[in-house]
Design goal:
279 residues; alpha+beta; Immunoglobulin-like; eight-stranded mixed beta sheet; five-stranded mixed beta sheet; 3 helices; 17 strands; rod-shaped; binds 2-acetamido-2-deoxy-beta-D-glucopyranose
Length: 279
């Protein structure tokens, strides 16, 4: 992405900001000239914001700079020509800047300078690991101005497909520089995969991915099931071994085992006795 790389000095487009331009706006309304909007490029060159108070019928008491409505420390002076320099601008320096003039017994006046930058996603989850039936939450937060449009996508067959808010179990919350995707009641067959958040503004675009893993309900039981399986296998081995061992102990005559055996030996004895008797 190549934004405007022109130094601000060249981009100075003298914007005449006439404040409170009511129908009867007289010449005694303060007028402010600014150096105009700038874009933090790549590579980022130093930028200088300027405001000149070109006419005012009131006595200036002090002036200062604000960024996104917050006063920048140590910028307060009694000066009608104001300058704010950012020597190493980064995406987080982008935003809405104001130069503000306070007057003796007159309303304050200000002018706006937009400092733009492509979005940069500065926070996201690399992975989200949940059990089926639970909810997953993924987020991305960004710097860059104007605030980006957010899109969530899911990789299907190698292509990222848009996820619509409120479609099925998907819910999306967007704030200016933050987005959140929630998936309710996770399904092990449908939901695991690669999810992408995409931030796009007028200057550029950036995206990051989160890998969602969904484990089976049984996952927490696996160690226990492993031990159980081991015990079952041991028992089976012992039983099989015992069953194989027993036939070896039985004598090779085809006589049935158990109490019958004693009967049969008795029979032999009886036979012998009978034989003896006959002798
Ligand atoms: C503001 O005034 C200074 C000093 O006269 C001048 O160098 C600068 O270019 C002016 N800036 C703008 C935006 O008019
Ligand atoms: C700011 O400067 C102006 C012009 O020099 C002067 O009239 C005014 O009194 C000063 N204000 C303060 C608060 O020092
Ligand atoms: C700038 O002026 C506008 C209109 O008077 C006002 O609503 C806004 O709060 C001012 N901003 C700052 C930073 O003073
Ligand atoms: C996000 O935006 C909010 C409000 O616009 C702001 O207060 C906050 O500092 C921003 N955060 C970042 C990381 O830019
Ligand atoms: C998505 O839908 C929810 C619930 O209807 C709503 O609260 C939320 O603002 C929507 N988000 C977006 C980005 O439209
Ligand atoms: C983000 O989405 C936009 C619009 O679909 C696309 O043009 C852009 O290439 C995407 N950006 C990234 C970094 O994937």
């Amino acid at each position: 992405m190549s934004g405007s790389t022109l130094p601000s000095a060249l981009v100075i487009s003298l914007l005449l900001v006439s404040l409170l331009p009511g129908p009867g706006a007289a010449q005694n309304e303060p007028s402010i000239v600014t150096s105009g909007e700038v874009t933090i490029g790549d590579p980022a060159l130093p930028i200088t914001l300027q405001c000149n108070l070109t006419s005012s019928s009131h006595i200036l008491t002090y002036s200062y700079w604000t960024k996104n409505g917050i006063e920048l420390t140590a910028t307060r002076k009694n000066a009608s020509n104001m300058e704010y320099r950012i020597s190493k601008p980064r995406a987080e320096d982008s935003g809405e800047y104001h130069c503000v003039y306070h007057f003796h017994s007159a309303p304050k006046a200000n002018a706006t300078i937009e400092v733009k930058a492509a979005p940069a996603i500065t926070g996201h989850k690399r992975s989200e690991n949940k059990n089926e039936g639970q909810d997953a939450m993924m987020y991305c937060k960004s710097v860059g101005y104007p605030h980006p449009e957010w899109v969530w996508r899911r990789k299907e067959n190698g292509l990222f497909m848009d996820i619509a808010n409120n479609s099925g179990r998907f819910f999306i919350i967007n704030k200016e520089n933050y987005t959140e995707l929630s998936i309710m009641n996770l399904q092990i067959t449908e939901d695991p995969g690669v999810y992408q958040c995409n931030a796009t503004n007028s200057v550029g675009t950036h995206s990051e991915v989160t890998i969602l893993r969904v484990r089976s309900h049984l996952a927490p039981l696996w160690p226990f099931l492993g031990i159980l399986a081991e015990i079952i296998i041991l028992v089976v081995i012992i039983v099989v071994y015992e069953k194989r061992k027993r036939p070896d102990e039985v004598p090779d005559d085809d006589e049935p085992a158990g109490p019958m055996k004693t009967n049969s030996t008795n029979n032999h004895k009886d036979k012998n006795l009978r034989q003896r008797n006959t002798n």
